[in-house]
Amino acid sequence: MTVVTTIDVYAMPPHEYRAILDHMGVETRPAAGLFLHLTSKTDFGFRVIEIWDRKEGFDEFLAKRLTPAAQALGIDRKMEITVTPLHNFFGPRLQDLVGLIASLPGARPRSG
Length: 112
Known about the structure:
Elements: E1 3-10, H1 14-24, E2 34-41, E3 45-52, H2 55-73, E4 79-85, H3 94-101
Antiparallel strand pairs: 1-3, 1-4, 2-3
Helix pairs in contact: 1-2
């Protein structure tokens, strides 16, 4: 069953978020079951919302990639995780996002 995961990470500065992503290499080697990853800065830290093909795929990613990466970097932040079935998805302008992403705060510079 396709699921939506939400990870609320408290008191995490942007450089720690970037360090974990880089350590895991998720932008160049995404997990096979991941369809979508979105992150927003919040007043408490970061909110990460993802769509996964199944809960077990997310659980495996958490155990084998995210947790070990945070431990290797010495990053220990309070997290609240929820996993719920995906009810609906609507993305009428997904093709337009590619041009916007490079301009977002925290975006990876494109190699040329």
